[in-house]
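FAQ: What does the model actually see?

It sees only this:
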Amino acid sequence: MQNITIIAMGKVQKGFMLEGCNEYIKRLKPMCNFKLIELDDENLPEKNLNQTLINKALDKESMKILSAIPKQSYVISLCIEGKQLSSEELANTISQKGLEGFSNICLIIGSSHGLSDKVKSASHMKLSFSKMTFPHQLARVIALEQIYRALSINAGTKYHK
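And it is asked to produce this:
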């Protein structure tokens, strides 16, 4: 059974996004060894926020993220400048990386300010769901659904039409 980890900054605490996350996590459990690692994002001031403060926060977050990545992981950072894949291509990537000896597929979702260049450069792949910008909590639901879809494609089930 394949190991899949999502490392995400912040927590989804309530509402339909939490329900969506919980539903897909429940669906993933029989299909893979799934682990969600939620890390605390850095608090930033609402007033006088500037790029220097954002960069410092991203740097601190990057240290948390990089230390949480399981060993022998194929690391995929979700970022807008990443490559866009079809669901079938993602399924193939997940399957192929397992065959290549990676014991874990690890997707990384940054905070509302994104990911530092340190995390992106430590990744094997940068992935984008769209040219559109999504709230990072919604990106988590999308990531969970796409992992479930990819594993369903690889298993030959009827979920993916």
